[in-house]
């Protein structure tokens, strides 16, 4: 069995996280922002798995299960918000939703 | 029972504490019962304590009670403590007694006013402050009461605050009396610095021990105290606030601006009489201030149209008599006139209030007339009070008190023919303006229909005060008429007797004839001028000299204009000039920096989620970078 070095796996997780973050920042379409968020969540999940494997502990996998559950909830709420947003301002451009200046 | 002394100011204070927060939710009947009842209970207690005091008299001249220690800093120990002697007791009886009847009257007079509970809360607080003023055994507590009555006066003059003119009158009263109060505060500092105590009785003893008669220090101290007294008692040159103070409701004018508060100055001088005795020059100033004020205010009262302003100038004039009496060392006469004046002046205001109510808030006497048939109780009580104010001989209290002052202004060792002449001129003017007011208001044809008549509460208050205005004078009858000296005998337990010049005593009955005749002559002349020869009066006031005099007298000798030119306008000019000075620029810089920071930071608050996310990312990167690098 070939083991992947922890550093490589963590680098991959970090790269994915940055990819997601860049997606969140540069994309204006709110659905792609949600996608970026999903990538970031999964990147952190990957980092947990790698760390759990590295230390030989089950905690990392448990945390990943938590993240999965949370991601599911986040997506359902997020998509509901997207629908509401589209319903109200008839666009998916997140920058148009700046009326409250909050 | 003297242990219950503290309850006397505490009861009206309790009324204030109940009415101020809860008055808005209480029924009018309950408010009236609280407001009038607390003062009434206090009056009954005062009478009870008076009985005890009289019982123990020849042996115990004074009681004191320490309620609690107020403050103790270094050598200064001030107690919340009361001192009871004949002078205090007289003041307390008047404040509580007259105060109670005015409260009773006000319960009906103010019944339809929106601020009914606020009114009684202020009135109760006023009575409490005035009682503290007269009962205090040290000058600091006295000063607390002194400022307390000033505050209540401000609140009550501006009671109908919807009208900006009332607010202006309230501020004017507050600021003008503050001038005197400042002088008094400086006087207190000086007394404490020189004599090391503020306890009034200790102060008197030490002053007699340390200072000699006519020395510089007692003269300065006495003049500073006089400054405070002049402000509160509306004497020259700080008299301008009192006529404007008539903006308040009429019971307020009766209680504060006639019967009690304005006499605080008289009380202060009587209470610190030892210092004034040590400073004959200051005493002479007191007499001259009183004499000048009583004549000038008399002329002003003669020309007013507003019935309450006549009474206001008459109050200034009558307090001038009290100052004159104090100035010639006739302490008992001053306190006696204070008491009698409180009775008849309160009654005059109450009567004027009833008339004003009947005329639907009309104050102008020239629009009244013929009321004597329509309002008999008001008319007869008002007539009695007027006769007392004009000092009609033999039958009125005012005669006995004022005649005592006029006589002693001449016969005291400090007196003289000049002071006597001023007092006599004042007496003549008094009967002129008093009966001018009576004839204009009650005689002649009916000009305005009577809208309403006073009910039982107002009538009872007026009838009781009328009885006092008639009969209280018999406490003190001059030797030439039978010689009763109950009052001066009582007050001399606290204040020294007048030192008479021996050579002048023989003329007493002659001087009484003169002053009594003067009062009657005044009534006869004004009767002729107003009711018999109105054309001649019109010609007199229409002549060029008459017009100029009328303008001066009507405006109170143009004192307001004088102060406006010499003090108010230069002050406002300086304030304008000083609006943008170097110190302001520092504070302007602070506010400008705040504004700048606001503008810069608010641009980041643009509502765009992506910039926030970028901000979060950059922040996290910086934190992580710092952790890694440092």
Describe the protein in words:
The complex is a heterodimer of chains A (102) and B (630). With 102 residues, chain A is an all-alpha fold. Helices cover 76% and strands 0% of the residues of chain A. Chain A is elongated. The model of chain A has no long low-confidence stretch (mean pLDDT 90). Chain B has 630 residues and is mainly α. Chain B contains 27 helices and 4 strands. Chain B has helices at 7-22, 28-55, 86-109, 116-135, 139-157, 164-195, 200-210, 216-232, 241-244, 250-259, 264-271, 273-277, 280-303, 307-327, 331-358, 371-374, 376-389, 397-411, 417-442, 456-471, 486-491, 508-532, 534-542, 544-554, 559-577, 582-603, 609-629; strands spanning 63-73, 76-84, 476-477, 484-485. In chain B, the strands form 2 sheets. Chain B has a two-stranded antiparallel ribbon with strand order 1-2. A two-stranded antiparallel sheet of chain B has the order 3-4. In chain B, helix 5 runs antiparallel to helix 10. The longest helix of chain B has 32 residues, at 164-195. Chain B starts with 6 loop residues before the first helix and ends with a helix. The mean pLDDT of chain B is 86. The chains are: A mainly alpha (102), B mainly alpha (630). At the A-B interface, helix 1 of A face helix 27 of B.
Please outline what is shown here:
The complex is a heterodimer of chains A (102) and B (630). Helix content of chain A is 76%, strand content 0%. Chain A has 102 residues and is an all-alpha fold.
Strands of chain A, count = 0
Fraction of residues in helix of chain B: over 70%
Count of helical regions of chain A: 3
Oligomer: heterodimer
| Low confidence ranges of chain A | none
What value does the average pLDDT of chain A take?
90
């Amino acid at each position: 069995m070939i083991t992947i070095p922890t550093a490589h796996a963590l680098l991959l997780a970090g790269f994915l996280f940055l990819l997601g973050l860049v997606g969140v920042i540069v994309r204006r379409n709110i659905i792609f922002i949600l996608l970026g968020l999903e990538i970031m969540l999964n990147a952190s999940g990957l980092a947990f798995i790698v760390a759990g494997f590295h230390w030989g502990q089950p905690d990392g996998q448990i945390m990943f299960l938590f993240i999965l559950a949370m991601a599911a909830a986040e997506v359902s709420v997020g998509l509901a918000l997207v629908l509401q947003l589209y319903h109200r301002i008839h666009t998916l451009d997140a920058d148009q939703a700046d009326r409250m200046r909050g | 029972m003297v242990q219950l002394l503290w309850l006397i100011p505490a009861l009206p204070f309790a009324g204030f504490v109940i009415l101020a927060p809860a008055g808005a939710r209480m029924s009018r009947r309950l408010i009236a019962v609280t407001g009038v009842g607390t003062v009434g209970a206090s009056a009954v207690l005062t009478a009870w304590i008076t009985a005890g005091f009289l019982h123990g008299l020849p042996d115990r001249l004074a009681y004191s009670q320490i309620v609690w220690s107020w403050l103790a800093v270094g050598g200064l120990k001030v107690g919340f403590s009361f001192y009871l002697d004949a002078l205090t007791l007289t003041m307390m009886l008047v404040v509580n007694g007259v105060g109670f009847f005015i409260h009773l009257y006000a319960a009906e007079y103010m019944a339809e006013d929106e601020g009914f509970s606020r009114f009684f809360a202020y009135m109760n607080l006023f009575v409490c402050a005035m009682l503290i003023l007269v009962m205090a055994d040290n000058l600091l507590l006295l000063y607390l009461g002194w400022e307390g009555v000033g505050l209540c006066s401000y609140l009550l003059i501006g009671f109908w605050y919807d009208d900006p003119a009332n607010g202006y009158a309230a501020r004017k009263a507050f600021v003008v009396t503050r001038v005197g109060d400042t002088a008094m505060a400086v006087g207190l500092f000086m007394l404490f610095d020189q004599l090391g105590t503020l306890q009034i009785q200790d102060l008197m003893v030490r002053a007699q021990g340390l200072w000699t008669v006519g020395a510089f220090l007692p003269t300065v101290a006495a003049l500073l105290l006089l400054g405070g007294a002049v402000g509160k008692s509306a004497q020259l040159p700080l008299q301008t606030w009192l006529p404007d103070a008539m903006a308040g409701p009429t019971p307020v004018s009766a209680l504060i601006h006639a019967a009690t508060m304005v006499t605080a100055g008289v009380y202060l001088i009587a209470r610190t009489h030892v210092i004034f005795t040590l400073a004959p020059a200051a005493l002479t100033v007191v007499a001259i201030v009183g004499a000048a004020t009583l004549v000038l205010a008399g002329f002003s009262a003669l020309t007013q149209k507003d019935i309450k302003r006549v009474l206001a100038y008459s109050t200034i004039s009558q307090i001038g008599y009290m100052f004159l009496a104090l100035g010639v060392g006739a302490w008992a006469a001053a306190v006696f006139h204070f008491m009698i004046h409180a009775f008849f002046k309160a009654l005059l205001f109450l009567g004027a209030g009833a008339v004003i109510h009947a005329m639907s808030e009309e104050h102008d006497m020239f629009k009244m007339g013929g009321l004597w048939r329509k309002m008999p109780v008001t008319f007869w009580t008002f007539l009695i009070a007027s006769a007392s104010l004009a000092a009609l001989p033999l039958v009125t209290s005012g005669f006995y008190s004022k005649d005592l002052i006029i006589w002693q202004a001449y016969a005291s060792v400090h007196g003289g023919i000049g002071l006597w002449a001023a007092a006599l001129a004042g007496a003549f003017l008094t009967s002129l303006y008093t009966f001018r007011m009576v004839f204009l208001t009650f005689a002649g044809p009916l000009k305005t229909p009577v809208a309403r008549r006073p009910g039982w509460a107002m009538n009872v208050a007026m009838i009781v005060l009328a009885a006092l205005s008639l009969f209280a004078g018999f406490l003190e009858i001059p030797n030439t008429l039978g010689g009763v000296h109950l009052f001066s005998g009582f007050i001399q337990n606290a204040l020294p007797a007048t030192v008479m010049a021996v050579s002048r005593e023989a003329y007493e009955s002659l001087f009484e004839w003169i002053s009594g005749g003067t009062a009657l002559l005044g009534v006869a002349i004004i009767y002729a001028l107003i009711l018999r020869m109105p054309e001649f009066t019109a010609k007199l006031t229409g002549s060029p000299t008459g017009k100029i005099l009328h303008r001066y007298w009507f405006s109170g000798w143009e004192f307001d204009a004088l102060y406006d030119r010499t003090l108010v306008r230069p002050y406002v000019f300086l304030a304008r000039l000083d609006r943008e000075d170097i110190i302001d620029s520092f504070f302007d810089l602070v506010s400008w920096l705040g504004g700048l920071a606001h503008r810069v930071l608010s641009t980041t608050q643009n509502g765009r989620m992506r910039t926030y996310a970028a901000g979060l990312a950059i922040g996290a990167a910086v934190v992580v970078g710092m952790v890694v690098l440092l």
